[in-house]
């Protein structure tokens, strides 16, 4: 998943705020871009993946390489 503002694949889960509740009910979770620091929302499952990925950085880096080789064209 990538930042919709700068395109960097450098997102981390953000802290949930009161303002996020409506989005939360739509199964979206707030994330923060480490590159441009913009806030965004991603699907709940993606956010869960993100949190797990942060925990297992090393294996995630390997997975990222695989992702890039089989990357779908995004628009
Ligand atoms: Zn960004």
Structural notes for this entry:
The protein is of the alpha+beta class. It has one domain. Helices cover 40% and strands 19% of the residues. It has three helices and three strands; from the N terminus they run E-H-E-E-H-H. It has a three-stranded antiparallel sheet. Strand 2 and strand 3 form a beta hairpin. The longest helix is centred in the C-terminal third of the chain and has 13 residues. The radius of gyration is 13 Å and the shape is globular. The two termini are 12 Å apart. The relative contact order is 0.18. The model has no long low-confidence stretch (mean pLDDT 86).
Question: Any descriptors?
Answer:
globular, alpha+beta, three-stranded antiparallel β-sheet, 75 residues, binds zinc ion
Which SSEs are present, and which pair or pack?
Elements (H helix, E strand, L loop, with lengths): L10 E3 L7 H5 L2 E6 L5 E5 H12 L1 H13 L6
Antiparallel strand pairs: 1-2, 2-3
The site of zinc ion has 8 residues, from loops.
Number of helices, counting only DSSP H or I runs of 4 residues or more: 3
Shape: globular
User: SSE string, helix = H, strand = E?
Assistant: EHEEHH
What oligomeric assembly is this protein in? Answer: single chain
Mean pLDDT: 86
Quickly count the domains.
1
Kindly provide the radius of gyration, computed on alpha-carbon positions and rounded to a whole number of angstroms: 13 Å
Q: Please bin the fraction of helical residues.
A: 40-55%
Strand coverage percent = 15-25%
* Structural class estimated from helices and strands: alpha+beta
The biggest sheet amounts to: 3 strands, antiparallel
Low-confidence stretches: none
- Topology, number of strands: 3
Hetero groups in this structure are: zinc ion
Spatial strand sequence of the major β-sheet: 1-2-3
Distance between the termini: 12 Å
């Amino acid at each position: 998943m990538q930042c919709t503002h700068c395109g960097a694949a450098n997102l981390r889960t953000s802290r949930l705020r009161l303002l996020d509740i409506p989005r939360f009910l739509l199964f979206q979770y707030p994330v923060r871009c480490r590159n441009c620091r913009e806030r965004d929302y991603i699907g709940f499952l993606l956010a869960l993946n993100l949190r797990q990925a942060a925990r297992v950085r090393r294996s995630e880096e390997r997975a990222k390489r695989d992702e890039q080789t089989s990357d779908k064209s995004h628009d």
